[in-house]
């Protein structure tokens, strides 16, 4: 039985190590900072990393099937730049969402086509895709683009009550700079006065 337990832990060593690390860091934060051990702070971990969770879920299926995709991070940046630029021009928010989804499907489908039809290694194809998406992002703009669209702001203001906290979409429509980003962080998450005192 002990041998089976050790084999099971060894098989899932990365998941076990990640879980232990998260618990240790969360525990340290709970003892070190007032208000850190709360439902809202825990939910903020999912709010801040919502897009990463979506990307990681897709990547899990790719890795399970023996593939790899190096272009996901760069393509997230590219889609974000396309979306922000179209909204800044004045396109309808729902059309922008649909358009960016179509771009994502076409881009991923094209890479998959190259891999399957020409028997190319996923590492090479997705590496090229990464550089393509990154370069295209720089062609659109080298500066940050602030999204002030009302529809996006509405989506970001929706809050779902979950276990005493609020789960919402994090999307800042403020112009953030070095001098005021700490205050904006506290304002967006509606953290109480302890947060403002800590970040001042």
3D architecture notes:
Helices cover 70% and strands 4% of the residues. It has 200 residues and is mainly alpha-helical. Strands 1-2 form a two-stranded antiparallel ribbon. Helix 6 runs antiparallel to helix 7 (122-140). The longest helix has 25 residues, at 93-117. Mean pLDDT is 80; it is low at 171-200.
Please tag this protein with its features.
two-stranded antiparallel sheet; mainly alpha
Layout: helices, strands, pairs:
Blueprint: H1 2-11, H2 13-32, H3 39-48, H4 50-64, H5 72-89, H6 93-117, H7 122-140, H8 150-157, E1 159-162, E2 165-168, H9 181-189, H10 193-199
Antiparallel strand pairs: 1-2
Helix pairs in contact: 5-6, 5-7, 6-7
Secondary-structure class:
mainly alpha
What is the assembly state of the chains in this entry?
single chain
How can the largest sheet be summarized?
2 strands, antiparallel
H/E topology pattern: HHHHHHHHEEHH
Morphology: flat
Q: What's the total count of β strands? A: 2
**What's the pLDDT, averaged over the residues?**
80
Instruction: State the helicity in percent bands.
Output: over 70%
Radius of gyration: 21 Å
Query: N- to C-terminal separation?
Result: 54 Å
Q: Tell me the number of helical segments per DSSP (H or I, 4 or more residues long).
A: 10
Read across the widest sheet, the strand sequence of neighbours is 1-2
- Note the beta-strand portion: under 5%
Unreliable residue stretches: 171-200
């Amino acid at each position: 039985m002990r041998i089976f337990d050790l084999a099971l832990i060894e098989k899932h060593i990365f998941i076990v190590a990640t879980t232990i690390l998260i618990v240790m860091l969360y525990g340290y934060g709970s003892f070190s900072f007032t208000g850190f051990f709360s439902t809202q702070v825990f939910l903020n971990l999912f709010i801040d990393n919502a897009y990463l969770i979506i990307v990681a879920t897709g990547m899990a299926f790719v890795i399970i099937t023996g593939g790899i995709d190096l272009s996901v991070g760069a393509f997230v940046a590219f889609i974000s730049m396309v979306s922000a630029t179209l909204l800044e021009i004045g396109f309808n928010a729902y059309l922008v969402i649909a358009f960016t989804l179509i771009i994502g499907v076409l881009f991923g489908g094209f890479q998959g086509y190259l891999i399957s039809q020409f028997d190319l290694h996923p590492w090479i194809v997705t590496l090229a895709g990464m550089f393509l998406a990154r370069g295209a992002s720089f062609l659109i703009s080298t500066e940050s683009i602030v999204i002030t669209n009302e529809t996006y702001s509405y989506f970001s203001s929706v809050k779902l009550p979950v276990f005493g906290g609020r789960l919402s979409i994090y999307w800042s429509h403020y112009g953030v700079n070095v001098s005021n980003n700490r205050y904006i962080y506290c304002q967006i998450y509606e953290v109480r006065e302890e947060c403002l005192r800590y970040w001042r």
